[in-house]
Amino acid sequence: MGDTGTMTMTSADDVIEITDPQPHDESRPLAAVRIPVGTVVLAATPIGNVFDASERLKALIEHADIIAAEDTRRLYDLANRLGVHVNGRVIAYHDHNERNKADGLLDNVETGATVLVVSDAGMPTINDPGLAIVRRAIERGLPVTCAPGPSAVLDALALSGLPTDRFCYEGFLPRKHSERMQHLRTLLPERRTMVFYETLHRIDDSMDDLLEAFGPNRRMALCRELTKDYEEVRRGTIIEIRDGVRSDPPRGEMVLVVAGASDEEATAAAPSTLSIEDLARLAIDRALEDGLRIKEAISQVAEEHPLPDGTLPNRKQIYTAVLKLKQD
Ligand code: SAM
């Protein structure tokens, strides 16, 4: 037992209560942190500001039997900064071993251990390890719970000023330009506010691709170093944020929040249900109307009609269909 209060076993020994160490004031109920035994507990850790750590997180770090930590050194560093002792066994639990380790950890849960899962920062499972043990716990019928807290997704969304009633979390965009564009094209009809994680190294390229995919005028926010001393939120249109990224490159960790499509944009961007022959007809009309070479018209028409998976219709097939239509 650490110095956070007194510990009692309750309700058939399935929960440990850590009571408030402050002198008890009769006018308020006695506060207690419940440490559920025989349970997996996913706990969020601060994303920058250590004071965002909850009392529950501190008690869990101190009293869990086993802590599965993405980076064990970071766990000890956090515990030091929070002024709590790690009394349980600590194991490294990261992207590369989480599937292999899940069952061993759950065997301990089965015999009554409290297994705490923490990542380097924020909520486990959100672009961090944790999902494998949650899935296995569900499959094995073992209890899993959460001590929620900081996560960059919600922090950025709330600060963006964009609609929060419906949003989607998109994680990191693909690294390669072509895959990023394909993915962004699937999001063209997306009406919900979109939240992306991004890195310092790719922000330039990603901003160019957001501009190409969504056009210059969509509203967005770039939120960086959230909860830290140099927290900054840049709000504006995609072109404004892109230009700002070029002239004043943002440092540190960042999240991009992009407004969803308007009704008109969503309708115009609905995945193509046009046949290759329909696209060929559109290309012929476009070439005539705009005085374009047929190959240029085909490229434009294909770009404007992505398939549901974000890839573009096959230009060669459209070209063959154009030749056939012209022969008929
Ligand atoms: N599990 C974490 C969470 O719940 O937010 C996310 C982990 S993910 C590996 C790391 C990414 O989260 C960073 O590249 C950045 O996009 C975002 N992020 C984490 N902390 C942040 C912060 N303080 N400010 C801005 N973005 C942050």
List keywords for this structure.
328 residues, 20% strand, 3 domains, 13 strands, single chain, five-stranded mixed β-sheet, Cobalt-precorrin-4 Transmethylase, domain 1, rRNA_ssu_MeTfrase_I, five-stranded parallel β-sheet, binds S-adenosylmethionine, transferase, methyltransferase, elongated, Methyltransferase, Cobalt-precorrin-4 Transmethylase, Domain 2, alpha/beta
What does this structure look like?
- With 328 residues, this protein is α/β, with parallel strands linked by helices.
- It folds into 3 domains: 9-149, Cobalt-precorrin-4 Transmethylase, domain 1 (3-Layer(aba) Sandwich); 153-268, Tetrapyrrole methylase, C-terminal domain (Methyltransferase, Cobalt-precorrin-4 Transmethylase, Domain 2, 2-Layer Sandwich), CATH 3.30.950; 276-327, no CATH class.
- The protein has 12 helices and 13 strands.
- The protein has helices at 55-63, 72-82, 98-110, 131-140, 152-160, 177-186, 203-214, 238-247, 263-268, 276-290, 294-304, 315-327, and strands at residues 7-10, 15-19, 32-36, 39-43, 66-69, 89-92, 114-118, 144-147, 167-172, 193-198, 219-224, 232-237, 254-258.
- The strands form 3 sheets. The chain has a 5-stranded parallel beta sheet with strand order 6-5-7-4-8, sandwiched between helices.
- α3 crosses α4 and α10 packs across α12.
- The longest helix is centred in the last third of the chain and has 15 residues, at 276-290.
- The termini are far apart.
- The model is unreliable at 1-12 (pLDDT under 50).
- Residues 47-48, 119, 121-123, 126-128, 151-153, 197-199, 223-228, 253-255 line the site of S-adenosylmethionine (SAM).
- Catalyzes the 2'-O-methylation of the ribose of cytidine 1402 (C1402) in 16S rRNA.
- It holds the Pfam family TP_methylase.
- It comes from Bifidobacterium callitrichos.
- Residues 39-240 form the Tetrapyrrole methylase domain.
- It is found in: Cytoplasm.
